[in-house]
Amino acid sequence: MTETKTTCPYCGVGCGVVVAEDRTVRGDGAHPANRGRLCSKGSALAETLDDSGRLRTPMIGGGAAGWDEALELVAQRLAETIAEHGPDAVAFYGSGQFLTEDYYVANKLMKGFIGSGNIDTNSRLCMASTVAGHVRAFGEDIVPGVYEDWEEADLVVLVGSNTAWCHPVLFQRLVAARAERGTRIVVIDPRRTATCDSADLHLPLAPGSDVALFAGLLKHIAETGHLNEGWIEAHTNGLSAALEAASGLDVARITRLPAADIQAFYDLFVSTERVVTVFSQGVNQSSAGTDKVNAIINCHLATGRIGRPGMGPFSVTGQPNAMGGREVGGLANQLAAHMNFDRPADIDRVRRFWQAPSMALRPGLKAVDLFDSVRDGRIKAIWIMATNPAASMPRAELVREALKACPTVVVSDCWVTDTTALADIVLPAASWGEKDGTVTNSERRISRQRPFRAPVGEARPDWWIMSEVARRMGWADAFPYVKPADIFREHAALSAFENDGGRIFDIGGLASLSDNGYDAMPPVRWPVLAGGRESGRLFADGGFATPDGKARFVPTAWRPPVARQERRYPFMLNTGRIRDQWHTMTRTGLAPRLMAHRDEPYLELHPHDAMKLGIGDGDLVRVQTVHADAVLRALVTDGQRIGEVFAPMHWTDRFASAGPVDRLVSGACDPVSGQPELKATAARLSPVPTLWRGLLVGEMRRHDGIYHARIPTEAGQIHEMRGWQPLPAPEGVAEWADRLIGRAGQRLEVIDPLTGAYRFANIVDGRLDACLMISAKSRYPLPDRADLAAMIGARIGEAERAIFTTVREAADAQPVRKTVCVCFGVDHAQIEQAIRGGRLTSAAEIGKVLKAGTNCGSCIPELKEILREMQVVA
């Protein structure tokens, strides 16, 4: 059987994947990033190859068009906008889902030929603060370490990273090292997450207080005689200023942590030579994100713990090719190949290499400012590619307003999204499995993403779409690409152009790859110099990308989040990712088993806050900010700090009435990186009464005034519904149901106000097409939703018996079975039964019996929690 080796399209771990001819997917045991392991999302990749929601043909004004017509129109609109308003009236907004080759063409087209810096990407929401922190400290955006450092460290500090859920393959490498050599783990996170299950110490610090914690650590390093003075003298500058900025901070007051816990962390850090500090979105997504990054780096520079085995600051990226985008200058404030706008020689160098006629001379607008400029009319034409900002941007409602008002909105994407609905021109792009190119993971490793099927419909690769537009704008000679290898060779050549060791990013050793060599290219870590030799760790002996070759300590004065809790908004809202979903669910939302663990959006809050507000677990709760409000299901957990709440960012309007959650979030940004603060928005909560519950099977029309969440199942779509307004009077219920599900075919109805049962079904061609079941009295629960979904398509005789049974029979329905291990479909009840029947006492024993926890391992903390709960019960 033919097999294709490619790379997973999800997080920045960069796992190798093997896809067989029958579309089954397994981890690539030869890939150095994952060594055969996959997380729940990677394991379910084959289930996301559902083309039912794919864009198949270009669209203009909502109608189908040919490629020539669509491309000519895009080129015409861009050219007219530039001619009338100048190049800065045009903007591109790209994505970490781009391949490097896509990114390269987009950046070249905008900065070298349109002549504006206005190209930014959704990586601004993820990694921009890390980029800025690296540049300030190292002179260049460099991750110094490698994944093996996680396994060779004696202490790993995880900051703002629920690694067990968001980067589970790396986390399992860390857990294995812990079991083998006793690695200690410290987790620094306001929430108690699944990652904390393996921690020796959890520091639930106050939101936004990371700078104070690490500034205090720097001061402690100096005061206890743990400065590596020889290394500091030889390889750094600026320690005195950094120490001065760190003085006078009351760390315990700012972080709201016990002084003893702070001291325990500081003592552990200074007494352990091999320390890796891993950080992610909890650090980056902050109005002080860049200072957080530099506060961490300062501590590693002060001890000389960088670039050696088991040592260093380590940023884990959130997207599959955020690093590749940074390499080609995909952010508005960057030039290609790690060159910068603040150096005129760099601008000239890129201009000459590209032979660019209209080279951008200054940075463009960063994401939040970019969409604000669309809204106020400064940007007249925007091209959005491979991302869904109408759902993922902070203040998402304002982004939607901006796109509605913009004269020209072009969107290239694979699926229909919230953003394609607002586009004038929609271009169908190739998806994972169809695309051909490279991605770079968090340890600087370039891997091939290879196609294993033809594009759906008329979909085309993003690089091809942009190149075709460039040709129609008169720049055919500069965009002659026939295949991705052509672009990659140019990208590699630019990295080496007039480099002479001045820039660490250099893959010139790959610039002469043949087409066959590119196709067969194994995973390789940059820099890659002449001869194709790859690099490992960096900076052990200095050699930073600064004029004097020395790293810079950066003074980091603590400042609180922009949003403040106050009487009207007494809670702090945090948003983030969960285990089995990805971004706005355009791909993972297609796989029913990825919805089995968390199938509805929710709001985590502490039991103290829940009791005070009269909110029970599973109740509806309204969360309001100055920007918007949303109704979510409450998840009461002592993993939250009192006064703080958490909501996942994945659900959009296409999946739930509550989405997108990012419309609640403030647009406050880090002044250096421009990255928005997604972890700290002031909010208030109020309980929402549930007057009735419902299940709708089939398609649903959006209806205001109710809570609903769409849940894919193997048999079809189920909508969980709850209402906080009374149902209409019995004579108006049927009309109300029509507005929810529409009228098609024959309608069957049961309306029984005495029992609170309302049931409606559409019958088309003798088969059940859709049904709606309402229970207005809590003592009459609804039927099992999986059984209900399985009836869709059933013949009318079977459907009648199932739908119109007595209400009391429905009272015997079982509750929804909660899946714990998504990889193997093991639910809570099965685990409890196995524990009781086999007297199991550990997650490993559960794994032997049920396989739960033996793939990605991200459910192991929950297995342990079930064991603890059952021991308490026993």
Structure description:
The chain is an alpha/beta fold and 874 residues long. It folds into 6 domains: 3-48, 2-Layer Sandwich (Phosphorylase Kinase, domain 1); 59-120 and 333-442 and 452-484, 3-Layer(aba) Sandwich (Rossmann fold); 128-315, Dimethylsulfoxide Reductase, domain 2; 571-688, Barwin-like endoglucanases (Beta Barrel), CATH 2.40.40; 692-810, no CATH class; 819-873, Arc Repressor Mutant, subunit A (Orthogonal Bundle). The chain contains 30 helices and 34 strands. Strands 5-4-16-15-14-6-7 form a 7-stranded mixed sheet, with helices on both faces. Strands 22-24-23-26-21-25 form a 6-stranded mixed sheet. It has a 6-stranded antiparallel sheet with strand order 28-29-27-32-31-30. A hairpin with an 8-residue loop joins strand 1 (3-7) and strand 2. Helix 17 (367-375) crosses helix 19. The model is unreliable at 806-814 (pLDDT under 50).
